[in-house]
Amino acid sequence: MPHxxxxxxxxxxxxxxxxxxxxxxxxxxxxxxxxxxxVMFVVxxxxxxxxxxxxxxxxxxxxxxxxxxxxxxxxxxxxxFTVLFANFAEAMAQGRGKAQAASLRKSKxxxxxxxxxxxxxxxxxxxxxxxTDIGTLKTESVSGATLRKDDIVLVQAGDIIPGDGEVIEGVxxxxxxxxTGESAPVIREAGGDRSSVVGGTQVxxxxxxxxxxxxxxxxxxxxxxxxxxxxxxxxxxNEIALDILLAALTITxxxxxxxxxxxxxxxxxxxxxxxxxxxxxxxxxxxLVALLVCLIxxxxxxxxxxxxxxxxxxxxxxxxxATSGRAVEAxxxxxxxxxxxxxxxxxxxxxxxxxxxxxxTTAEQLADAAQISSLADExxxxxxxxxxxxxxxxxxxxxxxxxxxDDKPASFVPFTANTRMSGVDLPVSTRxxxxxxxxxxxxxxxxxxxxxxxxxxxxxxxxxxxxxSKRGSTPLVVADGSxxxxxxxxxxxxxxGGIAERFAELRRMGIKTVxxxxxxxxxxxxxxxxxxxxxxxxxxxxxxxxxxIREYQQGGxxxxxxxxxxxxxxxxxxxxxxxAMNSGTQAAKxxxxxxxxDSNPTKLIEIVRIGKQLLMxxxxxxxxxxxxxxxxxxxxxxxxxxxxxxxxGTLNIMRLNPETAILSxxxxxxLIIVMLIPLALRGVKYRxxxxxxxxxxxxxxxxxxxxxVPFVGIKVIDVLxxxxxxxx
Amino acid sequence: xxxxxxxPVPAPTLAAITGAGVLQLLIYLAVLxxxxxxxxxxxxxxxxxxxxxxxxxxxxxxGLLERGIYAxxxxxxxxxxxxxETGWKPYAAGILVFNALGFIAVFALQRLQHMLxxxxxxxxxVEASSAFNTAISFATNTNWQGYGxxxxxxxxxxxxGLGVQNVLSAATGIAVLAALIRGLARRSSxxxxxxxxxxxxxxxYILLPLSAVLAxxxxxxxxxxxxxxxxxxxxxxxxxxxxxxGVAVTTQTIPLGPAASQIAIKQLGTNGGGFFNVNSxxxxxxxxxxxxxxxxxxxxxxxxxxxxxxxxxVRDRRQxxxxxxxxxxxxxxxxxxxxxxxxxxxxxxxxFGVDTTASLGELGGNMEGKEAxxxxxxxxxxxxxTTAASNGSVNSxxxxxxxxxxxxxxxxxxxxxxxxxxxxxxxxGMLMFVIVAVFVAGLMVGRAPEYLxxxxxxxxMKMAMVCVLVPCAIVLVGTAVAVLIPEGNTTSNPGxxxxxxxxxxxxxxxxxxxxAFAGLAANTPFYNIALGLAMWFSRFWIIVPVLAxxxxxxxxxxxxxxxxxxxTHTPVFVLMLVAVVVIVGALTFVPALALGPVVEHLQLxxx
Lengths: 728, 607
Description:
The structure holds 2 protein chains of 2 kinds. Chain A is α+β, with helices and mostly antiparallel strands. Helix content of chain A is 48%, strand content 16%. Chain A has 23 helices and 21 strands. In chain A, strands 1, 2, 3, 4, 5, 6, 7 and 8 form an 8-stranded antiparallel β-sheet that branches. Chain B is mainly α.
């Protein structure tokens, strides 16, 4: 989709984002920032400590039996890098969000609003003033920033809409590309489901009178900016639980490392007692600190906040705005998906698919009558009848006027809710000496019409109507003014291509799909079977939807739904993941916890994927981080106890230089954070397969991979470090 | 190894495992697994309060007894005469008070035993710090023994104090487990059971009948069960040369006592506190190969069967199998390794040219500190079983195992006593690891983690991590304190082996095992108090969080299984669980183990 701020295609390390991120990484060294992340705070503290040890070394007060001050300093530097790299990852994620926020903010420039004196526009007077010439409205010019909730403003062609609100008067085309990225203008009008407007969008034609729905600072754009900037930093329960796990692991390793000093002192005492001439010396604080930093889960700890921000960012790139991080995570857990039939599962419009003539009428005659009655019918159903007549019986399109006679044109009878029929009245002509009336409409309406015209309702037509209904199609009966039933047109709901596959994919993900429709149960069942949904709710009312959601939730399921109308609002508020269409009403948007800017009902599937990806990235990197520790032990333990127990050298299976093994481990530990930034930002790939297979796959990649990678990485770094040989 | 090659005697001098040895291990595992289902099923009935339906009028009779106990103890019952269930807090309070009373009773019995009956040897009051240590030890199902049974405890103390606590501490573990399982199985429930009813039922229907059967079987093998005091008997061949003061030794004092009854529950209840000082290496505590087999079987019997109980009670037997499978995946390789390492013998001895190969009439391998009637395979089996379960009884001296052979029992304890573990406590400990595994695995498949349909949230995570952290912290910090102060240095060997002895002691106490490495003089005020505190904290700082998790889970709704839910009975999940247990255990203790058994081994082979 053409989104002005989308940069999914651009490379992760875009210089425009990297440069400010470096500065920001340095700024984040502030301990008040660091303390929010316990794992990285530990690294921060020991970095300070090691730096002090290096300084002490340079003034001749270094640790006994320890490294040269230069080597201690280099280790200290790499510990600082560990903190910086984690900061950098977070800054990168924020930078990507900020870039998006900046372009959003551009559209939020202050505008002058024409505020209508509220005294002149009391609620409920709209109908009476519909015809009012808007020029006579008394307005005052105010700054858009001063508008409050319930203020009324007039927006004319070319104006920027000053704030989120609801259209209470007028119809206009609006360019919403600033928020949706979609350049085609949309229609906004009072009443109905297209009445909400977003601040910062531009009216292209006509005028609107808008009631402002939000106070300054809480508008839709404000929320969107806050979200993409990651300013909302409230942690989700899941993140808190992971924080607890990581903190507990950090404490465990802190204990394991801290107690190593007394153990080492004991070992040295024992060694000295056995052999007074031994050069054994206790483990140095530098080595302990390096071991600690290598063991605590810095990889996941350093990338955790980047993962969260990037998850939000991916959602924004999919043109979805969530009001809370919790909703995004919940999306990954959704068990039941409620989908509106129309627009989601089927194309919005039904198409004519067959003509069934009855009572001796030929199919051509029926097609001809149907075509004539539909020529002036500009509804998609009407158009499809004309198209079908041409395709099947080669009846070409005729001009309405050509059907007339003596300048008396044929007159089109439009559909009304009352008559539930439409049709055409042909004037008297050579072809039709008595003129001709043709009507098409629902079976009941046409039966009544036929009786009124003195005919008998056709039994055969009634049978066909039933059959068509059973197939999930809508029957339209055609009759003429002589009381004769000509036949039945089958209007078919066209199920979107590929939708059945998407539902199968959802089923593999463990998600049940439920189709919501106003159709009768027979039609609904047929469409449900064709689309491959698991269940359906027919003749759905807002109350029935709400009840269905509650039932699923009672059973412990997490329900997601999309909606756009005001009557969807209660169900949206009840659903765990509720995606409101941007084209929908303000009430729907307020009730949902996400807004889809593209107003694409199948977006839910995308949202579920993003939610899962967010959790998977966290879990996989946690596993990777912990699996890494095994190799680090093999690198550090032999080196750390070289002087006390040379026999431990056997464990040095990587054959590292004992002098540099610890440095190499610290360097690896820092670099792996940078290496994984792209993965953290992009997210672990999600494949819709069974959970057990997914676990097996991810365990293999991130668990077993996490065991092996550091063996290779540390060895390579050690070789490189030894080529430099600066520590002596 | 290179020095070995240049040894004067021809290779091979190191023994290897034998077919007969492997067969014994297989028979053991087969019998154990065969008993898992029947006993597990029965225990589930008991814990669900359905034991009263037992056939032959037995249920009715015991049911009367059960209700009588409730009436006497004032356990609140409802209209149907069933005990009133409570939430987790009253349950935990009950458990804590009950165990505190047990501690006081055992402490008082020891201090006052010289004034009480059933003391034929006329033993005096037990020293205060030792009595403190022992009282905690038996209240916490640790059964660490800083004392020698026959020379310290009167028969009354043994039976009324230690024997009773053997039953009650095991009942406590199973009761807490029952509460946790109910938490997992129930939906939106405010209660997790009645602790008094659970304690009573476990004691009455499970522990006492099983102990009675096993005690009789042991008596048939020659385990003593008598109130007669120690007997002085004439030596068949007088001991010469004479003792240091020049007197020839012609008689020997044979300690006796009501041993069989206590040994039965010592093994079944994963207690491990021996009647005699050398525990099940003593010929009157464990006289024959059959008694050894029965006792070794009893060590793992209840912990293994409880896995089935778990599956039965959560109405999904596969879950029980999965947990049992995870335990076996850790246990069997370690058991095999322990056997192989001991069967290989000691390279230092082999270097002298001693052939330690097993042959007919010749027990091979490292026989130092092992009983000739058990040999290497049964000693290794016992060592692995007793440390996998938090039993701690011994039939050989782990101190004399090869360094790596000794590492295995130590590491099995350090894993948190969750591979079988204590009666009840092993499985509830393992279920805490399951929570951690489910959390990480759940994230990896993109689902908010849940176990058996229950969402794992920050509270469960916090409690599970406390359960994982507490034993680790106690072992590491306790060892650190002991090696730093002179009071801690009571080891029998210098260097890494001495370090291993201290680390082993804290690993044992900090995980409520009670196994002793031997070699460390632990009956000192420092060790009595330090290990006493270690046992107390590691027992109850886990029980309380476990019950808190039970309460929190019980209150939750159950989400239905879908194909997106992570199944927790699959081989992949079992591997995940194993990885979590092993990696947490390994990562925490690798540095310490490296300075103890690992370096000792490396020094031994490089000599």
